[in-house]
Amino acid sequence: MTLVVGYDGTEGSRTAYARARELASRLGEDVLVVFSFESPRLGGELHDLDEAIRERGEAVVAEALAEAGDVAVTTQVRMQGPAEGLIAAAEEVDATMIVVGSYGERPLRSALVGATPTRLLHLSERPVLVVRASG
To answer: Is-contact 97 64, C-beta < 8 A?
Structure first.
């Protein structure tokens, strides 16, 4: 089985990734690290921006892969909204759960800005573990 972890290189995602590796090691599972982004469409073709974000995503997941330790880790970069991309990845691998980080936003703020953990809790049919970043 596999744990899917949302990863964008931020403190919250690094904390979630560490917890996912720890859990995977205990449970004998693999980890799929997913960087998922939605292409900003402000008008016109933004191919260069999409490519820059994709390249950043590839670099970020490569950093995560370098920290895998004794856990089997694979990576994906997806061009979907973060919550939707994580749910799709979890479906594809029949994941045990989705793990994401949080900065401890207040409920109203996260509802207004559409924070990924909040969206996942509402949209995912799989268990979601939200790991609060330290600090």
So the answer is: no
Residue with tokens 């109203």: 108
Residues in CB range of 99: below 8 A, 6 or more apart: 3, 4, 5, 6, 16, 17, 19, 20, 23, 128, 129, 131
Print the domain residue range for 109. Answer: 2-132
Q: The whole model's pTM is what?
A: 0.86
Structure tokens at 41: 């469409």
Token reading at 84: 């939707």
Phi, psi of 4 (to 5 degrees): -100, 130
pLDDT digit string, tens, across residues 27-37: 999 999 999 98
Count of domains observed in the chain: 1
Q: At 119, which amino acid appears? A: R
